[in-house]
């Protein structure tokens, strides 16, 4: 393996630092200003974690607690109280897996689907309003960049 020069090591470290800084800076901006604004949260009165669970269930159908935990990258012990609160709100219901009765499955209720549809509509409205500042080319570029990010970090 070829030796890296000191300048290569510094450049790699600087690039890594810039990447980390940009990721750190963009996450709250995307979440708060664009995707899940305070307006959306006020309308639904749901925390982001609940919305993420609804999104996972909407996109995948009935899921196990483990699958939800894994997909959302939330520790299993933290998923249980989220699902508990969502069940009390009538957004989801637990059911048993007929093949393995030990496994707890989570299903979105009609109320959960209504709520999620409303959230998605609100998010689309927010993105439409926010994106008026950009040209169609800039929007395509941003969308392409987001698709690339998702492809690269999905593993």
Q: What this model shows, in words?
A:
- The chain is mainly α.
- It has a three-stranded antiparallel β-sheet with strand order 1-3-2.
- A hairpin with a 7-residue loop joins strand 2 and strand 3 (104-108).
- 71% of the residues lie in helices and 8% in strands.
Give the secondary structure arrangement, pairings included:
Elements: H1 6-35, H2 38-44, H3 48-60, E1 63-64, H4 65-72, H5 76-88, E2 92-96, E3 104-108, H6 110-130, H7 136-153
Antiparallel strand pairs: 1-3, 2-3
Overall shape: it is: globular
Strand arrangement, major sheet: 1-3-2
Radius of gyration: 20 Å
Averaged pLDDT: 84
Give me the secondary-structure category: mainly alpha
Strand content: 5-15%
Order of helices and strands: HHHEHHEEHH
In short:
The protein is mostly helical. 71% of the residues lie in helices and 8% in strands. It has helices at residues 6-35, 38-44, 48-60, 65-72, 76-88, 110-130, 136-153, and strands at residues 63-64, 92-96, 104-108.
Summary keywords:
155 residues, mainly alpha, 3-stranded antiparallel beta sheet
